[in-house]
Amino acid sequence: MAYRKIAILLLVFVAAQQIHGADSNANTPVDPPTSSTVQPPPETTTDKTSTTTTTTEPTTSTESTTTTTTTTTPPTTTTTTTTEAPTTTSTAAPPAPTPKPGPLPKPDMGKWHYRNSTTNQTCIIVQMAVQLNVTYALKDNTLKTILYNLPANDTTVASGFCDGEKNVLQLVWKKSSWVSLTFTSNSTVKEYKLNELRFDLNASDIFPDAQANQTLTLVHKKSEFTTPITMSYHCTRAQTLNLTSADATEVTVLGQALVSRLQLEAFHTRDSDSFSTAKDCDAIDTPDIVPIAVGCALAGLVVIVLIAYLVGRRRAQARGYLSM
């Protein structure tokens, strides 16, 4: 209760003070409500909420820092300096393959003769170009087949032999390789022929990469180039002669000799080194049936002409009788 009384007294006191202040304000002149009252409220209005400038302009334009687009695009793929492709071309292009060796040139033609020391007459004359096709052993024990031209300019007469039934001419080159031609004659038919062609080849000296101390002996044993005595044999075209082992029982072909531009004469009995009249190989090989056929054709033509003449004459005589 005491608290209530105190509170009531305080309220009465406050109310009395307010009434007294109102009376005193009524007695004092009141200044016109100028700037004191009209003072702009503490710029609450002037705040203009210009915050709108900051808020409304979310300066997302700053987000135009999407220069990421620009930065992404100019990766300036100048990294395509990988167009150092010319360097790739220059990357040591594989070397061109070595050209294959061309065909072996034709062999040179040589001419040789042998003079009989007893009679002082030339008994053998040989002119030819020779190409060999032979097989030899290499250093690695494999076999190799090559073409080899007889070096005509380096080949010389080594020896010879002449008598009434046998003539021999031996040629040499590189001091260790030989070719021998043996001719035999038949006095009954007065002909001679090449009876044997023999090659003794020092393979180690004349063939590339050949095994050491290797010698090839190859022989053509078949009789060739039959020719009348006092004549020479001539053949321009190439002729192939098979070569076998020197063993008389061996017939296996081990190589070939291609002989061209050939002219030879054995049992020559004159002092000169020139050939006698030549018998050509093509003329020799002409079959006998050819002249027979030509003769028959000419005979038939003569018969036809004769029959035509007789028929024409008979018709002319018949017309004469009719006119009479």
Automatic annotation (TrEMBL):
Biased composition (Pro residues): 94-106
Pfam families from the UniProt entry: Lamp2-like_luminal (PF01299), Lamp2_2nd (PF21222)
Residues covered by the Lysosome-associated membrane glycoprotein 2-like transmembrane domain: 290-318
Polar residues bias (residue ranges): 24-38
One GO cellular component term noted in the UniProt record for this chain: plasma membrane
Alphabetized PROSITE patterns for the sequence: LAMP_3 (PS51407)
InterPro entries, per database record: Lamp2-like_luminal, Lamp2-like_TM, Lysosome-assoc_membr_glycop
Membrane topology: Single-pass type I membrane protein
Localization, UniProt: Cell projection, Dendrite; Cell projection, Growth cone membrane; Cytoplasmic vesicle, Secretory vesicle, Synaptic vesicle membrane; Early endosome membrane
Domain Lysosome-associated membrane glycoprotein 2-like luminal: 113-246
A GO biological-process term: establishment of protein localization to organelle
Keyword Transmembrane: yes
Gene3D superfamilies, per the entry: 2.40.160.110
Annotated signal peptide: 1-21
Alphabetically ordered keywords of this record: Cell projection, Cytoplasmic vesicle, Endosome, Glycoprotein, Membrane, Signal, Synapse, Transmembrane, Transmembrane helix
Stretches for region Disordered: 23-113
Top-rank taxon: Eukaryota
Regions of compositional bias (Low complexity) in chain numbering: 47-93
Residues that span the membrane, as ranges: 289-311
The UniProt record lists the keyword rRNA processing: no
The protein's role, per its UniProt record: Plays a role in short-term synaptic plasticity in a subset of GABAergic neurons in the brain.
PANTHER family recorded: LYSOSOME-ASSOCIATED MEMBRANE GLYCOPROTEIN (PTHR11506), LYSOSOME-ASSOCIATED MEMBRANE GLYCOPROTEIN 5 (PTHR11506:SF35)
Entry's family note: Belongs to the LAMP family.
Descriptive protein name: Lysosome-associated membrane glycoprotein 5
